[in-house]
Write a structure and sequence with these properties.
This protein is mostly beta strands and 313 residues long. Helix content is 7%, strand content 43%. It contains 1 helix and 31 strands. It has a 10-stranded parallel beta sheet, with no helix packed on it. The protein has a 10-stranded parallel beta sheet with strand order 2-5-8-11-14-17-22-25-28-31, with no helix packed on it. The chain has a 9-stranded parallel beta sheet with strand order 4-7-10-13-16-21-24-27-30, with no helix packed on it. The radius of gyration is 21 Å and the shape is globular. The relative contact order is 0.09.
């Protein structure tokens, strides 16, 4: 009868799922030096798998369409030596597009603190960019320097297709820790869209106000940021569960550009905790706050700021 048929069908699906987990989980994959684009669509990468990045010098690397799940991240890790990206002509640097539930870490060698290094990008290009539907990830132990824009750039603008507008997409549960960002032309961290109250685009030649996605859950901690052109850390649109703590920010805003020279900028739409940070020797405010309210700022040490220690707008 039909009930027996459905029971057998469900059992077959379950057995297929278990076989898939047994055959494919916790496997290792390799991104060799000749790869510029690593598309997970047809590579049989499963939650819990490890992707080893071959050490050595490459111009750029783009990771896309790779997904873990809420129980098991896909782990990207340097395979022993230092993975170095030095981009002399590409606008990519290290770009992560449409990837979810992953961890990117430079801890692949116990003798090397930062096993993944972005040593140069051209003008206008950030060291590490995360865009598209990328969400639910952790990034640690990267060395990023000499970038043409920000060290980390996490920003997906809304578009006329409404894929990334506020009601349709949320960036959830992201974490950056134990990274070293220095000598950047832009921010150390540029996380979240700057226009929480709306971003104007033209859709079919009609001027349209769209709202960028929110960030629900972000932790920025134990990062060393030194000699950055603009803000040390800038976080926008982080409306829930934002924590910025235990960071050391030195020589921020070296370009001395007005309104973009804070040690930490809590931008529009952001509310959360900012604590236990050391902020020294900058051209602007130690901490600049114009978030959504409810921010708790405490136990920060601010030395030799350019003007206000904490500035609320």
């Amino acid at each position: 009868d039909m009930n027996l048929f459905y029971q057998k069908y469900i059992l077959q699906l379950f057995l297929l799922f278990m076989l898939q987990q047994f055959c494919y989980s916790n496997k290792k994959h390799v991104i060799s030096l000749n790869f510029r684009n690593y598309d997970g669509t047809n590579l049989w990468i499963y939650p819990g798998d490890t992707v080893l990045i071959e050490p050595g010098l490459r111009e750029c690397l783009r990771l896309y369409n790779i997904h873990g799940d809420s129980l098991n991240n896909v782990v990207f890790i340097n395979d022993g030596g230092v993975v170095e990206i030095s981009s002399l002509s590409s606008y990519l640097g290290l770009t992560i597009h449409d990837c979810t539930y992953f961890k990117l870490t430079g801890t692949g060698s116990k003798d090397i603190e930062y096993g993944i290094r972005i040593s140069k990008t051209i003008i206008g290009t950030s060291g590490v960019s995360l865009n598209g539907t990328s969400s639910n990830y952790e990034i640690d132990h990267l060395d990023i320097c000499n970038t043409g824009f920000a060290g980390f750039f996490v920003n997906q603008s809304p578009d006329c297709n409404n894929i990334f507008t506020r009601n349709n997409f949320v960036i959830s549960n992201i974490s950056f820790h134990d990274n070293y960002i220095h000598n950047t032309m832009g921010e150390g961290f540029y996380v979240g869209h700057s226009f929480y109250t709306g971003y104007t685009v033209y859709c079919d030649s009609v001027k349209t106000l769209l709202y960028p996605p929110e960030i629900h859950g972000i932790k920025l901690y134990n990062n060393l940021i030194d000699s950055v052109g603009l803000d040390g850390i800038q976080v926008g649109c982080a409306t829930k569960n934002c924590e910025i703590f235990n960071n050391k920010i030195l020589h921020y805003g070296v370009k001395n550009e007005s309104f973009q020279q804070s040690g930490i900028q809590i931008s529009a739409g952001t509310g959360g905790k900012c604590y236990n940070n050391l902020i020294m020797n900058g051209t602007g405010s130690g901490i600049n706050v114009f978030g959504i309210g409810g921010n708790r700022i405490f136990n920060n040490i601010i030395i030799n700021s350019g003007y206000a220690i904490v500035d609320t707008m």
